[in-house]
Design brief:
Blueprint (H helix, E strand, L loop, with lengths): L1 E2 L2 E2 L9 E2 L9 E2 L6 E3 L7 E6 L5 E8 L4 E2 L4 E6 L2 E6 L5 E10 L9 E10 L10 E2 L8 E4 L12 E6 L5 E6 L2 E4 L1 E4 L2 E6 L10 E7 L6 E7 L1
Parallel strand pairs: 5-12
Antiparallel strand pairs: 1-2, 3-12, 4-6, 6-10, 7-8, 7-11, 9-10, 11-12, 13-21, 14-15, 15-19, 16-17, 16-20, 18-19, 20-21
Protein name: KY-like immunoglobulin-like domain-containing protein
InterPro entries: Ig-like_KY, Transglut-like_Superfamily_Mod
């Protein structure tokens, strides 16, 4: 089997494609119906879309085949309705195993089961540009419209943030020690502009903090600056 003109590595029998619980969990492939994905030379990202049943919990692993190393920071997980979208940005050329895990809402966890495995071939080298760190609550039906990343050393005085967090009561972006509230523009959707021209300390981060109940905030996303 080949990805374009490149011979793909031999996988364990049954590894690629749907696993035992894929159909039982009511999952479907919305975008890529074949388990081997070959990116183009000038293609920086690929987005895989998985259809699920309402309330299904999902997580993923992205693993460099050649380096035998997890690189999950190069996958952005987002949810739109009952679909999960996985935006993948390989940091280096080569093959990547992309493993999807799921668990229906009516099954006890916390261990999710592997439901589908892809093998992605990336021929291009676009450098290391990871997505923001995603904390567990982010995977509960949230969607990031912008920004999907922030350049290191950014000093832009007006960066637009727009997110959909269905259960949120309040959303703020904390840059260093400065809190920036986002405005609720429609149910579950928050938007606003954040000033990055402030003199934040080296090693600072921008955190998307969300209040669900009570007075405490939870961090859902964290951007290195």
């Amino acid at each position: 089997m080949a990805a374009g003109d490149v011979q793909i590595p031999k996988m364990t029998d049954g590894y690629l494609g749907p696993q035992a619980k894929f159909e039982a969990y009511g999952l479907s492939l919305v975008s890529h119906g074949e388990p081997v994905i070959s990116m183009q030379d000038d293609q920086r990202e690929v987005e895989i879309i998985l259809g699920t049943q309402p309330g299904t919990r999902v997580t993923v692993k992205l693993i460099s085949y050649e380096r035998k190393k997890e690189c999950n920071e190069y996958c952005l997980l987002r949810a739109l309705g009952s679909n999960f979208l996985f935006l993948i940005r390989p940091p280096l050329p080569g093959f990547y195993k992309f493993q999807i895990y799921a668990l229906p809402k009516d099954e006890a966890g916390p261990q999710m089961l592997g439901v589908y495995n892809y093998l992605i071939y990336c021929p291009g080298n676009f450098g290391s540009n990871p997505f923001p760190k995603q904390y567990p609550p982010w995977k509960d039906g949230c969607y990031l419209e912008e920004p999907i990343d922030l350049p290191r050393g950014i000093r832009d005085p007006s960066v637009k943030f727009k997110v959909c967090i269905p259960k949120a009561k309040e959303v703020q972006v904390k840059v260093g020690d400065v809190w920036n509230p986002l405005q609720l523009i429609e149910p579950g959707v928050f938007e606003g502009f954040v000033d990055f021209s402030i003199n934040y300390a080296p090693g600072s981060t921008a955190k998307l903090n969300v209040k669900f109940t009570g007075s405490n905030f939870s961090t859902l996303l964290e951007y290195p600056l």
